Amino acid sequence: MPVRPVVRLPEPVLKRVADPVTEIGAEEKALAADLLDTMFAAPSCVGVAAPQIGVSIRAFSVDVTGHKKADSCHGAFVLFNPVLILARHLELAREGCLSVPDLTGNVARATEVVVAGLTPEGTTRVIEANAFEARALLHELDHLDGRLFLDRVGSLSTDVFRRRRYR
């Protein structure tokens, strides 16, 4: 499946609430493969939501395998119509986004979450995650609700930073 271009702010699809999936058919399975391929193609990427590739559908991919801040790790997966069931223990930490590539920001997110959604095969999957994987899940869930990490920073003047570029 193809790697899709990632849309960037101010693309309107990033600020829109994504539509739920009514059934998982061939198009949704192809979208799942594209989400994974796009995620794997971007260096240091741990998640991509469908709105980030221009599709206003409630779906995302996540994979924190090998990330130094990960504790829980469920490998690479895609969820459709994900729902946050539990979130607790806030922690402030820096995060970035493929759709806002030049900035990072300090964002408070839960360090323990439970998320449920449908797999590309149509079965319900429940993910209990902590640490960095919890942050990644919450970041991707925000994309489905038309929110970016910039919407969650305490102060645009003190909590947003230009991304360092190394040559």
Structural features, described:
The chain has 167 residues and is α+β, with helices and mostly antiparallel strands. It has a single domain (12-162), classed as Alpha-Beta Complex (Peptide Deformylase). 18% of the residues lie in helices and 34% in strands. The protein has two helices and six strands, in the order H-E-E-E-E-E-H-E. The protein has helices at residues 26-41, 131-144, and strands at 47-49, 59-62, 77-97, 100-118, 124-130, 160-162. The protein is globular and about 45 Å long. The mean pLDDT is 96.
Map the helices and strands.
Elements: H1 26-41, E1 47-49, E2 59-62, E3 77-97, E4 100-118, E5 124-130, H2 131-144, E6 160-162
Antiparallel strand pairs: 1-2, 2-3, 3-4, 4-5, 4-6
- What's the N-to-C terminus distance? 31 Å
Q: Determine the strand fraction and express it as a percent band.
A: 25-35%
* Named CATH topology: Peptide Deformylase
Based on Cα principal axes, name the global outline: globular
Helix-strand sequence: HEEEEEHE
Q: Helix- and strand-based class?
A: alpha+beta
In short:
By secondary structure, the protein is α+β, with helices and mostly antiparallel strands. The chain has helices at 26-41, 131-144, and strands at 47-49, 59-62, 77-97, 100-118, 124-130, 160-162.
Descriptive labels:
167 residues; 18% helix; alpha+beta
